[in-house]
């Protein structure tokens, strides 16, 4: 999702500077109480590389985690779906999902998405080997996982199944309920994008809205500085000055897509600020910008430099060089880039008029990156076709689904591609003002806004009600 964010940051955010697609996805961080005795257990299940070709008998080992400390006979299976990150035990030891599971006597699992973490189906990440990295294959993994657990854990044979996801894995939770309703009884989507989209220009529109809400003058400083930088980059002297101010690793290349990459790197800093903002975070960032000395360009550059620390700002060519190699590494950005290029889109462009970054990174800069990383066929035509396919198969922004909960927040730039309104009594959408990405997945807290607290409680009550009705 690039969109799809931090997540978080969180278990999934990668803070590698200079990335157009800095990963803003994943579950929020979980604070496990000191002294908690129970510890989840790691497991593995054998999966097919290709679930849709019976003649292909290749297999691989998929990791998962489980915790049965709260399980009571007849309780549900509660599965946290992994996304574009390495899974960790904390989510099964505390937090909102843990609370829901324990309130209902649930048996908890956390599954790891194919190709991420240590769940590797292939020997490397060459483009031809990434063709099995798709939502179709990932959802089939989940289907076989549920079947396996029900067959091999006697106490779970008749258990109701609740799947929960955050960000991209919330997309999977939604689509799992649609595609496998006989296996998945309830789905809870936290900040889940459900409408695949080629040009996701609304993302930075929401970033702009939240910057302006925090400080209109901050928005104007960024907007003015961006315009001034565009002018400066028209001369050699200006290029040298901007490169120095923003501490780029090499002089800025003003040809495309390098020019777009530079501006998108600036915008990405604010996307990360907004997407996971807690109370006062955006205001503090704006205060830092507004109270810096110098021109608007100098104010903006000063703020960007503080986010990079001792590092310099990378170039487009360096970025491509970093994510072209096909060896398996702990940095999984190449994998998410492939998913958005090959299937999901969600390219976060500057086409919205509600953001302060000008029209400085258009759609073609993203599709060019896809071709540079994965080959010429991975251009706009392929991504556009794949996006349409995903929406046809899964319902787009109006899926036919029941026993489904979606939570979005006005502070989350992903909300425009999520479900925003109730469609019937068993397809519920909560929209929380001021809430950031997957903030609803934490336990109820005194620091929650009134609406966020009410939403968390309503989600828990609804799930408990549905579980009782299904049982």
From TrEMBL:
Pfam families named in the record: Peptidase_S28
GO terms classed as biological process: proteolysis
Record's keyword annotation contains Glycoprotein: yes
Top-level taxon of origin: Eukaryota
Signal peptide start-end: 1-18
One term of GO molecular function: serine-type exopeptidase activity
Keyword Signal: yes
Entry keywords, A to Z: Glycoprotein, Hydrolase, Protease, Signal
Family: Belongs to the peptidase S28 family.
Name recorded for this polypeptide: Serine protease K12H4.7
């Amino acid at each position: 999702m690039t969109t799809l964010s931090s997540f978080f940051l969180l278990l999934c955010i990668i803070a590698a500077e200079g990335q157009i697609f800095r990963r803003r996805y994943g579950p929020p961080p979980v604070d496990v109480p000191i002294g908690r005795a129970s510890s989840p257990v790691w497991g593995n299940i054998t999966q097919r590389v290709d679930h849709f070709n019976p003649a292909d008998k290749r297999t691989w080992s998929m990791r998962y985690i489980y915790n049965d400390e709260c399980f009571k006979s007849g309780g549900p299976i509660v599965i946290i779906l992994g996304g574009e990150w390495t899974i960790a035990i904390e989510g099964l030891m505390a937090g909102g999902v843990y609370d829901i599971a324990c309130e209902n006597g649930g048996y908890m699992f956390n599954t790891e998405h194919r190709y991420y973490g240590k769940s590797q189906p292939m020997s490397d990440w060459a483009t031809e080997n990434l063709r099995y990295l798709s939502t179709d294959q990932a959802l089939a993994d989940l289907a076989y996982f549920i079947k396996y657990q029900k067959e091999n854990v006697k106490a779970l044979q008749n258990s109701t199944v609740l799947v929960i996801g955050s960000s991209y894995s919330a997309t999977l939770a939604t689509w799992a309920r649609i595609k496998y309703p006989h296996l998945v009884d309830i789905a809870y989507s936290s900040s889940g994008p459900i409408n695949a989209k080629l040009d996701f220009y609304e993302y930075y529109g929401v970033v702009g809205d939240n910057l302006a809400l925090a400080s209109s003058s901050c928005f104007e400083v960024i907007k003015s500085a961006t315009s001034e930088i565009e002018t400066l980059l028209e001369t050699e002297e200006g290029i040298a000055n901007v490169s120095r101010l923003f501490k780029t690793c090499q002089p800025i290349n003003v040809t495309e897509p390098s020019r777009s990459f530079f501006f998108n790197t600036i915008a990405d800093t604010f996307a990360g600020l907004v997407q996971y903002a807690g109370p006062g975070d955006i205001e503090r960032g704006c205060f830092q910008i507004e109270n810096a000395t110098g021109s608007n360009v100098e104010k903006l550059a000063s703020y960007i430099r503080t986010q990079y620390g001792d590092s310099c700002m990378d170039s487009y060519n360096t970025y491509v060089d970093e994510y072209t190699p096909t060896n398996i590494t702990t940095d999984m950005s190449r994998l998410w880039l492939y998913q958005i290029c090959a299937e999901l889109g969600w390219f976060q462009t500057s086409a919205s008029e509600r953001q302060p970054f000008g029209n400085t990174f258009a759609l073609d800069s993203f599709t060019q990156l896809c071709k540079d990383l994965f080959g010429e066929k991975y251009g706009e035509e392929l991504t556009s076709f794949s996006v349409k396919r995903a929406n046809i198969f899964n319902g787009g922004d109006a899926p036919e689904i029941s026993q489904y909960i979606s939570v979005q927040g006005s502070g989350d730039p992903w909300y425009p591609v999520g479900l925003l309104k109730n469609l019937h009594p068993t397809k519920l959408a909560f929209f929380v003002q001021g809430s950031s990405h997957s903030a609803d997945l934490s336990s109820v807290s005194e620091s929650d806004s009134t609406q966020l607290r009410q939403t968390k409680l309503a989600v828990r009550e609804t799930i408990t009600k549905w579980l009782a009705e299904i049982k």
